[in-house]
């Protein structure tokens, strides 16, 4: 079956532009997570959805970052007024439900802000 | 604040040798400790996991050793093979939370020489 997919795989944008990153989780997975991974570092939690409800957004760095999952499936992470420090790999993961259930990671979107 | 500290940053092992990666955590509320394996260009994938009520868990050539009093755990890869060359991340979760968000270590890049 299909795994977690993300698009675009690569995004280059100029400072100040808005970007939208898409995640398509495994079908039927209730839980969806966004992580950010800097080069040479482990993924860092950004936000979590249970169905369409955003239950934890404690990892979002500032109010330029937002996420939604309006129908409990596909999710979009939006970064407004991008800055160079936003450059990173953005990864999405999904699991059947939260807690001990295995999280399946997507291939990520490599964001470069010039 | 880095809640999960991982070492070494990189590791080179000869084929057939034992690879050992160590992690330490601060938060005693963590109660589930997975290890993820990441190949270049791919997302992390669950390798093996342990709960703190056991001191060791083995799956094939991979073993987790857990020391609850020291707040440390380690991954041992026996008979290391070139195909094991990847980046390994330890992680921790607070299970009773309703998110299941993973807190990752910094990662260890393993190279197994033929």
Tell me what you see in this structure.
With 114 residues, chain A is mostly beta strands. Chain A contains no helices and eleven strands. In chain A, strand 5 and strand 6 form a beta hairpin. The radius of gyration of chain A is 13 Å and the shape is globular. Chain B has no helices and eleven strands. In chain B, the strands form two sheets. In chain B, strands 2, 4, 5, 9, 10 and 11 form a six-stranded mixed sheet that branches. In chain B, a hairpin with a 4-residue loop joins strand 7 and strand 8. Chain B starts with a strand and ends with a strand. The model of chain B has no long low-confidence stretch (mean pLDDT 93). Helices cover 0% and strands 52% of the residues of chain B. By secondary structure, chain B is mostly beta strands. The interface between A and B is medium-sized, with 29 and 26 residues.
The share of residues in helices of chain A is under 10%
Largest interface, C-beta within 8 A: A-B, 29 and 26 residues
* Sequence stretches where pLDDT stays below 50 over 5 or more residues of chain B: none
**pLDDT averaged residue by residue of chain A:** 94
SSE order of chain A in H/E notation? EEEEEEEEEEE
Question: Which class do the helix and strand fractions of chain B yield?
Answer: mainly beta
Question: What summary fits the major beta sheet of chain B?
Answer: 6 strands, mixed
Name the shape of chain B in a single word: globular
Task: Tell me what portion of residues of chain B adopts beta-strand conformation.
Answer: over 45%
Order of helices and strands of chain B: EEEEEEEEEEE
Characterize the main sheet of chain A.
7 strands, mixed
Helix/sheet category of chain A = mainly beta
Report the end-to-end length of chain B measured between terminal Cα atoms: 38 Å
The count of β-strands of chain B is 11
- Give the DSSP E fraction of chain A (strand runs of 2 or more residues): over 45%
Assembly form of the protein? heterodimer
């Amino acid at each position: 079956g299909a795994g977690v997919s993300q698009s675009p795989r690569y995004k280059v944008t100029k400072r100040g532009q808005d970007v939208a990153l898409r995640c398509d989780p495994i079908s039927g997975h209730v839980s969806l997570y966004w992580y950010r991974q800097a080069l040479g570092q482990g993924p860092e939690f950004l936000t979590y959805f249970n169905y369409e409800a955003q239950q934890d957004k404690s990892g979002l760095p500032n109010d330029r970052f937002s996420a939604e999952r309006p129908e409990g499936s596909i999710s979009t992470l939006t970064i407004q007024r991008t800055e160079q420090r936003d450059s990173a790999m953005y990864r999405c993961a999904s699991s059947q439900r939260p807690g001990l259930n295995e999280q399946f990671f997507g291939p990520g979107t490599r964001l470069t802000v010039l | 604040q880095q809640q999960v500290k991982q070492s070494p940053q990189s590791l080179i092992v000869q084929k057939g040798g034992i690879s050992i990666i160590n992690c330490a955590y601060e938060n005693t509320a963590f109660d589930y400790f997975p290890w993820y394996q990441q190949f270049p260009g791919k997302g992390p994938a669950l390798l093996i996991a342990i709960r703190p009520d056991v001191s060791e868990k083995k799956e094939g050539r991979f073993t987790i050793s857990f020391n609850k009093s020291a707040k440390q755990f380690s991954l041992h890869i026996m008979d290391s093979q070139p195909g094991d060359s990847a980046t390994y991340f330890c992680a921790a979760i607070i299970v009773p939370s309703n998110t299941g968000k993973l807190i990752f270590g910094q990662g260890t890049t393993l190279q197994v020489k033929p």
